[in-house]
């Protein structure tokens, strides 16, 4: 048994490890197919629509039909693309996403049916397993940025840069939120963290860190309302714009596997892992926390967190990019860092004064109440003013040769077209006709909407 972890892998052979790895890959691939159907069905019910209901019972085979369509679709390669990197990028994303579940505990030690062989319901574990998860997530960013850069096109490059900045920013907040769990559990081993939640799940005393993690996991996976790499100023697929057929499907697969990854990490570190919720955990002297029952509880919690993803997508609107980045850097990261410092001080005080566990919970609850009050009553930042005192700045949207939207505190000048009355429109049309103006002439530009005489006069 490896010191520092709770699971015992001493009886596992090489064939046991291979079978576990294959089962994890099969589980992820089938879960992605189910997640696509699940998302479409739940969003449809929120919008009072039936959703997929044609292929298979309850439309369950719709995802399989979509996968076959992508598999058989014509594969195109952009002429200006860097061929090797263009093909490598989606492979990096998928490979890194498949690595995370290697250290996720599905349950305690289980017995294989029809045999006497027992093994932990986990592929492997080591004392710094959570750092391994963060490393895999960090390497997945290379697939995004290389996919956008290697396409040789403007929109994929912009989407890749936005996505890279977004993933890195929110991964920092996510990592800081996990520090509180490390301090409370005293370990970075996933099986040890689950074992430390026997008495209390960590999301209760570490609620601020849990909230930061939930927001960060949505931002890191580029999901609504944070899907800004795919659609901000343009309605295209961001870094995946120039991909088609199976190469596009690999990126799509990596996105949904990453959703499962962050959901599994949330369940393992904050929601008790495979442990049954109270009071079911006390039934039969903890019988529901043993064997294959524990695997069932893990899957129930996993899909409960996946439902949160779908619920948020069907409820909230997309943020503006500058608001999104300010929220990550100026709100989430300071809150997660401050709370980690508080938890560290409390743990140090426990070693010195030996406070009871209940007193520790009260102290953490008081800190959370103070943070909540600061956020609620924080004075609003005054809006920027223009050159004249108290006036908003008037923005020239075409100053740099292309239109840009106004920022808070800026206003666009009134439109000449909006001030013109119908009589003035008729007069401008008569002037344009008398001058013999064509669709691209200066007179037509002055008239604004004048392309033909019939549009203004109704003739």
Automatic annotation (TrEMBL):
| Ranges where the record places region Disordered | 404-459
Reactions catalysed: a quinone + NADH + 5 H(+)(in) = a quinol + NAD(+) + 4 H(+)(out)
- Provide the E.C. number(s) assigned to this enzyme: 7.1.1.-
Location(s), subcellular: Cell membrane; Membrane
**Pro residues: bias regions:** 404-416
UniProt xrefs under InterPro entries: NADH_UbQ_OxRdtase_su1/FPO, NADH_UbQ_OxRdtase_su1_CS
Any idea which GO molecular function terms this record carries?
NADH dehydrogenase activity; oxidoreductase activity, acting on NAD(P)H, quinone or similar compound as acceptor; quinone binding
Q: Name one GO cellular component term.
A: plasma membrane
Entry keyword set: Cell membrane, Membrane, NAD, Oxidoreductase, Quinone, Translocase, Transmembrane, Transmembrane helix, Ubiquinone
Q: Which GO terms describe its biological process?
A: aerobic respiration
Q: Does the keyword Transmembrane helix apply?
A: yes
State the function annotated in the UniProt record: NDH-1 shuttles electrons from NADH, via FMN and iron-sulfur (Fe-S) centers, to quinones in the respiratory chain. The immediate electron acceptor for the enzyme in this species is believed to be ubiquinone. Couples the redox reaction to proton translocation (for every two electrons transferred, four hydrogen ions are translocated across the cytoplasmic membrane), and thus conserves the redox energy in a proton gradient. This subunit may bind ubiquinone.
Q: How does it assemble?
A: NDH-1 is composed of 14 different subunits. Subunits NuoA, H, J, K, L, M, N constitute the membrane sector of the complex.
Give the record's family classification: Belongs to the complex I subunit 1 family.
Q: What is the protein's given name?
A: NADH-quinone oxidoreductase subunit H
Q: Which organism is it from?
A: Antribacter soli
């Amino acid at each position: 048994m490896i010191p520092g972890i709770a699971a015992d892998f001493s009886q596992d052979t090489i064939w046991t490890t291979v079978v576990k790895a294959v089962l994890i890959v099969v589980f992820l691939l089938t879960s992605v197919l189910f997640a696509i159907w699940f998302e479409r069905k739940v969003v449809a019910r929120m919008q009072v629509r039936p959703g997929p209901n044609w292929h298979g019972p309850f439309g369950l085979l719709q995802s399989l039909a979509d996968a076959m369509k992508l598999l058989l679709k014509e594969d195109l390669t952009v002429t200006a693309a860097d061929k090797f990197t263009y093909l490598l990028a989606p492979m990096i994303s998928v490979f890194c996403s498949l690595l995370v579940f290697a250290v996720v505990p599905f349950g305690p030690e289980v017995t294989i049916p029809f045999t006497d062989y027992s093994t932990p319901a986990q592929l492997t574990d080591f004392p710094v397993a959570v750092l391994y998860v963060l490393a895999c997530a960090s390497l997945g960013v290379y697939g995004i940025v290389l996919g956008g850069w290697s396409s040789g096109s403007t929109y994929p490059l912009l989407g890749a840069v936005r996505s890279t900045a977004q993933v890195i920013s929110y991964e920092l907040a996510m990592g800081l939120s996990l520090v509180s769990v490390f301090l409370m559990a005293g370990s970075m081993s996933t099986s040890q963290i689950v074992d430390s939640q026997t008495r209390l799940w960590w999301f209760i005393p570490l609620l601020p860190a849990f909230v930061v993690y939930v927001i960060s996991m949505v931002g890191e996976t580029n999901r609504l309302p944070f899907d800004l790499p795919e659609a901000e100023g343009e309605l295209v697929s961001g870094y995946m714009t120039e991909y088609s057929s199976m190469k596009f499907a690999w990126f799509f697969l990596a996105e949904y596997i990453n959703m499962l990854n962050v959901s599994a990490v949330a369940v393992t570190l904050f929601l008790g892992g495979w442990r049954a919720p109270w009071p079911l955990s006390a039934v039969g002297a903890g019988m529901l926390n043993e064997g294959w029952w524990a695997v069932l509880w893990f899957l129930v919690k996993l899909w409960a967190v996946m439902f949160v993803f779908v619920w948020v997508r069907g409820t909230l609107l997309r943020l503006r990019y500058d608001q999104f980045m300010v929220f990550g850097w100026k709100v989430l990261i300071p809150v997660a860092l401050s709370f980690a410092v508080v938890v560290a001080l409390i743990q140090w005080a426990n070693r010195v004064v030996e406070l009871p566990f209940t007193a520790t919970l009260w102290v953490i609850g008081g800190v959370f109440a103070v943070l909540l009050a600061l956020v609620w009553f924080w004075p609003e930042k005054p809006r920027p003013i223009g050159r004249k005192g108290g006036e908003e700045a008037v923005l020239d949207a075409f100053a740099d040769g292309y239109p840009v939207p106004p920022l808070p505190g800026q206003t666009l000048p009134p439109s000449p077209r909006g001030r013109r009355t119908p009589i003035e429109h008729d007069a401008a049309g008569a002037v344009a006709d008398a001058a013999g103006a064509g669709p691209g002439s200066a007179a037509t530009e002055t008239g604004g909407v004048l392309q033909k005489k019939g549009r203004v006069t109704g003739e």
